[in-house]
Automatic annotation (TrEMBL):
Record carries keyword Secreted: yes
Subcellular location field: Secreted; Bacterial flagellum
Reported function: Flagellin is the subunit protein which polymerizes to form the filaments of bacterial flagella.
PANTHER family tied to this protein: FLAGELLIN
Keyword list, A-Z: Bacterial flagellum, Cell projection, Cilium, Flagellum, Secreted
Name of the protein described by the UniProt record: Flagellin
Amino acid sequence: MSSILTNNSAMVALQTLKGINQNLAKSQSEISTGKSVGSAKDNAAVWAISKVMESDVKGFKGISDSLALGDSTTTVARQASETITDLLTDIKGKIVAAQESNVDRAKIQADISALRDQISSIVGAAQFNGLNLLDGTDDVSILSSLDRQSNGLVSAGHITIQRQDMSTTAGVYGTGTSLNANATASAAAVANTGNTAVVTFNGSGADYSAAAATISVAGVDLTFTGAASQTETDAASYFAGAINALGLDGITASSSGAGLTVTSTRAFETADVTISNLVGNAGGTVITSLNGTGSLSLATGDIAERAENVAFSSSAAVQAGDGYKVTIGAASYSYIAGKGETMEDVAKGLKTAIDSGGVSGITSQVAYDTANAQWQLKVDNNGTSVAFSVVGNAGGEASGGLFGLDSINVTTNAGAKAALTNIETMIGSSIDAAAEFGSAQGRIETQSNFISNLSDSMRAGIGSLVDADMEEASARLQALQVQQQLGVQSLSIANQAPQSILSLFR
């Protein structure tokens, strides 16, 4: 049936042409924008994913800037620490030269002071954008990543850099929790008296004419060979004179009847006494005891070092701000630990504090007691006996990593000797600081490279979701243009169909 009111062919042709035009418009949009999903109406799910990823890429750009800033700051700190290490090494060379008495120590001290001032200048100038990693103890966090969880929550990741305080500040002793249980003094006073070993010879007027014995003191052998009418008193007297004649530093001997007393005033050093090569007489064994240990044919004894000590706990942890104070006579010396330090650092810090005090006759040393697995601070006194004690408190402000540098004084023998051990501690601190910054810088660079690669990967992923396939779009555009032309012609033909009805009315 033909109708002039309804043209079904034209409607079909029109709908087809509309569809072709819509597809053509979409293809043209893809070609002009380069995106197959340009808005949420194109593909809501894909568009939403792409926008989330685009926001993350934008965030990673900010993270890259943060890492670049952190890398620059850490580089400045590392280079400063390395320079400080070199300067401390130069100071060590000066201190070694000062160990020789036939030098101008005043000029050496002037050189040391100049190097010390240069170190202080470097510490003050080692900043980037106002942030100095060589001053203070607070950690510094650098934004390093954005961590997106499966539930959509986002958290920021950080790289933490520990500041390495290279200042010479003494710190502030705290008033917090008592730490007295972590440090124990070996005595209530530091005396200047020597320690002894006693050798007792056998007999009461016995004939020593056939006797012979060798006593070794501090590695030197002395031999007594009995003569006619000699007794145990003569043996003791002979050894006393022979030991004193050696002129051993800090070693003296005396005799009283059959007893020989060997005394050592050596600080931080034991002295051995060994008995050997015994030849008896008609009365029996020549030597009967060493330090009262009984009848011996061969005996060895050590004269203990002249020094008192502070023994530090082998199990207690050291927290930042933990302070320990040693009192020697009327003077007190303290050290306050920083982050990551140990009892070894505390002992060395207290030694530096004591040496910085420059009290005449007082010397100190740090040693590890293997038997008890604990660090010790040893203190010797070559003057008048003085009181000795140690206390500890938490809650202080840490001493600087180069604490004691500003008090190095090589103009005296004692000062030069103390400076030699203390400078090693300071060099160790600066090396540790440079190593810490170097490790942090390496981590920052690795993270920066990862963020760069991750951003590129995410951009590629976003592109695979929303970017148009230009080859496909071009081919589709040409096909749709042909379809559009055919559709227009089809619609034109369909619109002409009602005109044939006119022939029916002629």
